[in-house]
Specification:
By secondary structure, the protein is an alpha/beta fold. The protein has 14 helices and five strands.
């Protein structure tokens, strides 16, 4: 039968252990060890100490033996852990970052934690920790395109000026088409959401036709004017302009923000605008759809109503689109533009410089 080591404390050891046991500045584990040794010095058994402190008996025995062997120094620090020796992160961190940002594997477009760990001879968890600490996510990519419009700054200043400082007695309206919206029907019924399982839908579908949504949002109030039509030619665009004309106060000018789609610049469209002087058209720069606020409404429509919708025919699809528009207009919330033209120009300038300096493949 094992006998617990006897503990005899010097005056200085007792003072140190009592200080640790009461201190709020030392680690909780260190204070707990001090309490174990103080009770052991009182002649209590390991079982009694474990019951009083709420720890396991072998834990008390381990630290009791360690103190008997090494004294105060034996319980001041944690015991060394078993397993593979820990690799110093500082030694490999810079190389992990360099490899991740400047090189790619020979047989892939980007590194994974496993492939980079194998390449550098480190653990997968080491790569993961370095990536997390430095915000590296090589498995993700974001799409972008910088506008090469020669009049980029002038158009940007014009449109952002309308967003931030709209003219008096006028409406600022962002408009566009969302073309080729498909009425998709799934090949099998999906399963509903239940606790512990998300909803399901088949990966394949049946196409049941398309429609085009013409929409315009009032930047001040957030109301949306919308109409679904089978095609998106200049004839449909003029029809939609007439709808905007009917559904807005006749005594207000309309500053219409649109993209550079050829339909919007058709000679017959220009002729109609010339006859309807209350309309003032402002074109965003090419490749700058992010500047057209109606695109944000289209994104919400797609995410909330269309992407997971099931439609057996085009009328069902149109009903779903228009019901979403009606729901939005019941409690309209305007999209508030906050960036100034100067801030955007500076950010785009940085992106262009980075693109110009990027290494070619």
């Amino acid at each position: 039968m094992r006998v617990a080591a006897e503990i005899h404390l010097s005056k200085s050891q007792r003072a140190t252990l009592q200080q640790w046991s009461r201190s709020r500045k030392v680690a909780v584990r260190q204070a707990q060890r001090a309490k174990m040794i103080l009770r052991a010095a009182e002649g209590k058994s390991n079982q009694e100490i474990a019951a009083q402190l709420g720890v396991k008996v072998h834990t008390v025995g381990r630290w009791r033996n360690r103190f008997a062997e090494l004294g105060i120094a034996g319980i001041e620090k944690d015991l060394p852990r078993g397993g593979r020796p820990r690799q110093p992160r500082e030694r490999v961190e810079s190389e992990i970052i360099r490899k991740t940002t400047q090189e790619t594997p020979s047989n892939a477009t980007h590194w994974s934690t496993r492939s980079l760990a194998e390449e550098l001879g480190v653990t997968q968890s080491m790569v993961h920790r370095v990536w997390k600490a430095n915000g590296l996510k090589p498995h993700r990519v974001r799409t972008f395109k910088l506008s090469r419009d020669p009049d980029f700054e002038a158009k940007l200043i014009d449109v952002v000026g309308l967003y931030l400082n709209p003219p008096e007695r006028a409406l600022v309206i962002s408009a566009d088409e969302k073309s080729q919206i498909q009425a998709l029907d799934r090949t099998q019924p999906g399963l509903p959401i239940v606790p512990g399982r998300c909803g399901t839908m088949t990966h394949d579908y049946k196409r049941n036709g398309t429609t085009t949504l013409f929409a315009a949002i009032d930047m001040a109030q957030g109301n949306v004017i919308a109409s679904c039509m089978p095609r998106h030619r200049h004839q449909e665009w003029i029809k939609f302009l007439k709808q905007i004309d009917r559904e807005t106060p006749a005594d207000l000018d309309i500053h219409l923000i649109v993209d550079n789609y050829a339909t919007h610049k058709h000679p017959k469209v220009k002729a109609w605008l010339k006859r309807n002087r209350r309309f003032h058209v402002h074109f965003i720069p090419t490749s700058s759809s992010w500047l057209n606020v109606i695109e944000r409404f289209f994104r919400d429509l797609d995410a909330k109503r269309l992407r997971r919708g099931v439609f057996q025919n085009v009328p069902e699809l149109i009903d779903a689109v228009m019901s979403y528009v009606d729901g939005h207009n019941d409690d309209p919330t305007p999209f508030v533009w906050s960036k100034t033209a100067e801030e955007i120009i500076e950010k785009v300038g940085r992106a262009r410089r980075a693109l110009d300096n990027a290494p070619t493949a």
